[in-house]
Write a structure and sequence with these properties.
Blueprint: E1 4-13, E2 19-28, E3 34-38, H1 45-52, E4 60-65, E5 68-69, E6 77-80, H2 92-96, H3 98-102, H4 111-120, H5 136-148, E7 154-158, H6 166-183, E8 186-191, H7 194-200, E9 203-207, E10 214-219
Bound molecules: adenosine-5'-diphosphate (2 copies).
One adenosine-5'-diphosphate binds at residues 19, 41, 46.
Pfam family, one: ABC_tran
Family: Belongs to the ABC transporter superfamily.
InterPro entries: AAA+_ATPase (IPR003593), ABC_transporter-like_ATP-bd (IPR003439), ABC_transporter-like_CS (IPR017871), ABC_transporter_ATP-bind (IPR050166), P-loop_NTPase (IPR027417)
Length: 225
């Protein structure tokens, strides 16, 4: 089953004027595919991701994750946002373990997985540090670890590097590609940046300025190492 299956998804935010954010969006992922979602501000990219994550309800259409109709936050999704949303009063490793605690699973079973992720992201020496001691790029790496700790079927990233300076951002794209080549999760990656969308994606989905309309779907087959 596809990790994400969207058919004619429509989303209207309620309110006096009713904002049409998504208008008939259809998209199906292939297993292990890295999908970049590109488009100008306000065209519904974040809304689409939040609908997939079950954080918003759709108004019309069909939306399923792993073959299951989305109704509320499913537990097999990892998310990384522009602002990393790390808890400042918890160490890096206690931030990474948050989803495990949230699901009321035993954190002891995840020690090895956490060590692997810390190593993979180059944070192995920072597990006991606190978020304010880390650089922006390191914070996002910690957020990526947190998103991956429970082996999500799907990784959703909403402009994860949008708040970083250009140089760090480029480095993080290289990092993310390296990480993804290890994990091979299905990814939806939202960005404004054409270069990073193309660099990272197996496929680039372009949302048009008309709310949430997919203007064109480009499939870019990149040679992978
Ligand atoms: P982006 O960086 O994706 O363009 P925005 O800066 O437009 O996002 O929005 C940031 C936050 O504000 C989001 O969580 C979004 O849900 C919320 N938001 C955006 N537009 C509106 C709106 N018209 N009314 C209420 N909330 C909004
Ligand atoms: P993008 O991520 O592409 O910048 P968004 O999904 O944030 O676009 O926003 C799509 C449209 O929906 C915009 O017109 C935005 O103002 C509106 N919007 C986003 N979040 C909300 C919200 N919580 N309430 C009302 N309108 C919103």
């Amino acid at each position: 089953v596809p990790a994400v299956e969207a058919r004619h998804v429509r989303k209207v935010y309620p309110g006096e004027r009713g904002v049409l954010a998504l208008d008939s969006v259809s998209l199906e992922t292939r297993p292990g595919e890295f999908v970049s979602i590109l488009g100008p501000s306000g065209c519904g990219k974040s809304t689409f991701l939040r609908c997939v994550a079950g954080l918003e309800t759709i108004s019309e259409g069909h939306l399923a994750v792993q073959g299951k109709k989305v109704s509320g936050p499913p537990d097999n999704i990892g998310m990384v946002f522009q602002r990393d949303a790390l808890l400042e009063w918890r160490s890096v490793e206690n931030n990474i373990l948050l989803p495990i605690e949230f699901k009321k699973k035993a954190t002891s079973a995840y020690r090895q997985k956490m060590a692997d992720l810390l190593k993979l992201t180059g944070l192995q020496d920072f597990s006991n540090r606190y978020p304010q001691e880390l650089s922006g790029g390191m914070r996002q790496r910690a957020a990526i670890c947190r998103a991956l700790i429970d082996d999500p079927a799907l990784l959703l990233m909403d402009e994860p590097f949008g708040a970083l300076d250009a140089l760090t951002r480029d480095q993080m794209n290289v990092e993310l590609q390296r990480i993804w080549l290890e994990t091979r999760n299905t990814v939806l990656f939202v960005t404004h940046g054409i270069a990073e969308a193309v660099f990272l994606g197996d496929r680039v989905v372009v949302f048009s300025p008309r709310p949430g309309r997919i203007a064109e779907v480009l499939t870019i087959d990149l040679p992978r190492p």
